[in-house]
Amino acid sequence: MSAISTPPLAVVEENLPNARGSRRTTKIRGVRAGFWVYIGLGVVIVSAIFPYYWSFLIGSGDASTINNPNMSWLPGGNFIANALAVVNDPAVNFWLALWNSIFSSTVIAASVVIFSTLAGWAFAKLRFPGGKWLLAFVVATMAVPMQLGVVPLYLLFSDLGWTGQIGAIIVPALTSAFGVFWMTQYLSQTVPDELIEAARVDGASMIRTFWTVGVTAARPAAAMLFLFTFVGAWNQFFWPFIVLDRQSPTLPVALSLLQSNYFVDYSIVLAGVLLATIPLLILFAFAGKQLVSGIMAGAVKG
């Protein structure tokens, strides 16, 4: 009889009491990643980092760096000067644009998480007439291009006198069809119906059940949704460029003012782009570990 091969993930020791009455710890042995896995990960990492390095390389040079065929792959020494040129440019209004981007992105992301969690809980765990059709309609709205609603939306905000104000980019983005679908799928798979029934038997109202059960279970998905929405709102250019003016822009709109009609100094433009990505990198640095741990905890509990 041939020997039985060990599966990729095998239990080495069972969690059973030994002769002395103590319990042995269960040890799980996994297969180590192969050589090509590390090669693939290395290619992904280099592909992700290269655009930032290229931007820093051009942003640390001068106006002729990008057109130089003998350009050095080592950064120059002009990045601080180019960054100061962006910050001190009166046409850009950098600090106001930075505040507008932080404020609008935070409000939009928080609002999307709150409304999406409420709607996702209703679609996933409440039974009401037309619920499935209403969810299908919400998902179908994701197929409608945003550009189709720009003209009527601009006319509406123009009648309200909101053009040029930061609220004009916040109000249309307070809800998200993708966020509703995301939270609906997550809550329907994570929260068992028996847990909700047990809470109702114990006398908890539906609001109390949502707060103690639904919100607790939805934290990992809500954190990811907040991050995705924040990044999307931060990088939004089309609608803010139309509805805002130069006196109160967001950061992507303000950086577009660095381009002149006949000449574009890409060293200054890319220095400004790198400055605009610093808040996002800080957000990922502080929230990355919590997001991963939250997702893993939710996967284990689910």
Automatic annotation (TrEMBL):
<keyword id="KW-0472">Membrane</keyword>
<feature type="transmembrane region" description="Helical">
    <location>
        <begin position="133"/>
        <end position="156"/>
    </location>
</feature>
<feature type="transmembrane region" description="Helical">
    <location>
        <begin position="262"/>
        <end position="286"/>
    </location>
</feature>
<keyword id="KW-0813">Transport</keyword>
<keyword id="KW-1003">Cell membrane</keyword>
<dbReference type="InterPro" id="IPR000515">
    <property type="entry name" value="MetI-like"/>
</dbReference>
<comment type="similarity">
    <text>Belongs to the binding-protein-dependent transport system permease family.</text>
</comment>
<feature type="transmembrane region" description="Helical">
    <location>
        <begin position="221"/>
        <end position="242"/>
    </location>
</feature>
<keyword id="KW-0812">Transmembrane</keyword>
<feature type="transmembrane region" description="Helical">
    <location>
        <begin position="162"/>
        <end position="182"/>
    </location>
</feature>
<keyword id="KW-1133">Transmembrane helix</keyword>
<dbReference type="InterPro" id="IPR035906">
    <property type="entry name" value="MetI-like_sf"/>
</dbReference>
<dbReference type="Pfam" id="PF00528">
    <property type="entry name" value="BPD_transp_1"/>
</dbReference>
<protein>
    <submittedName>
        <fullName>Carbohydrate ABC transporter permease</fullName>
    </submittedName>
</protein>
<feature type="transmembrane region" description="Helical">
    <location>
        <begin position="97"/>
        <end position="121"/>
    </location>
</feature>
<feature type="domain" description="ABC transmembrane type-1">
    <location>
        <begin position="98"/>
        <end position="287"/>
    </location>
</feature>
<feature type="transmembrane region" description="Helical">
    <location>
        <begin position="33"/>
        <end position="54"/>
    </location>
</feature>
